[in-house]
Design brief:
The chain has 5 helices and 10 strands. By secondary structure, the protein is an alpha+beta fold. It has a single domain, classed as Jelly Rolls (Sandwich). The chain has a 6-stranded antiparallel sheet. Strand 1 and strand 2 form a beta hairpin. Helix 1 runs antiparallel to helix 3. The chain is globular.
């Protein structure tokens, strides 16, 4: 799982989109709940081919410079795919975090793929694999015990305006004025206004 990434010349935005479509094809009409989380971890397990291809693709795209190309507050991040009807309305963001804690009030329609770059790294207390947040879930995005890539599958709720959705649900609206902190202790907190969303959509 932590092996070398594929050659950065072998992955493009379109080929990466194809990888994601293998996952989103299973999401049509599905509720974002514990049952879906279990199904994703069974169908696309950590030791499986799809997980490995997505993880390798992320690392290759980062090496190529078109993924996680933005940086602020010690985090690298970026919007990889805009909302796409062929992906069942999902957009894709990828974030590179190293022992950091964020602040957010709620999440809607979000699925995370946790890809540890450090073997013991966890996101919201979970190791490598899929994590599903249903509508209205309270959420503090936090990486502990090392560094991880987090892929966010995000879908806008129909009843939420764009501005409301950005303010309430975006995973990492980074405050670029974050003060420095000792990352060897507890994860520093990141406050989240609207800067990240505005920079990537």
């Amino acid at each position: 799982m932590l092996g070398a990434a594929m050659d950065s010349s072998t992955v493009t935005r379109e080929s990466f989109r194809g990888l994601i479509k293998e996952v989103t094809d299973r999401l049509q009409g599905r509720a974002l709940d514990a049952a879906l989380q279990n199904e994703l971890n069974e169908c696309f397990p950590v030791q499986g081919e799809v997980f490995a291809r997505i993880f390798d693709g992320c690392r290759a795209a980062i090496a190529a410079g078109w993924m996680c190309e933005r940086e602020g507050g010690g985090i690298k991040y970026g919007r990889v795919i805009k909302p796409d009807t062929e992906l069942n309305g999902f957009s894709v963001d990828v974030v590179d975090m190293n022992s950091l804690k964020g602040r957010i009030t709620a999440t809607e329609w979000r699925i995370d793929l946790i890809m540890p770059l450090t073997a013991e790294a966890k996101f919201d207390g979970s190791g490598a694999g899929w994590l599903v947040y249903g509508p209205g879930s309270a959420h503090f995005p936090t990486v502990t015990d090392g560094r991880a890539l987090i892929l966010y599958l995000l879908r806008k709720a129909r009843s939420t305006s764009r501005a409301e959705h950005a303010a309430r649900t975006h995973p990492l609206n980074i405050n670029l004025e974050l003060s420095s902190a000792d990352h060897t202790r507890s994860p520093p907190e990141i406050s989240m206004p609207r800067l990240y969303n505005a920079a990537t959509t």
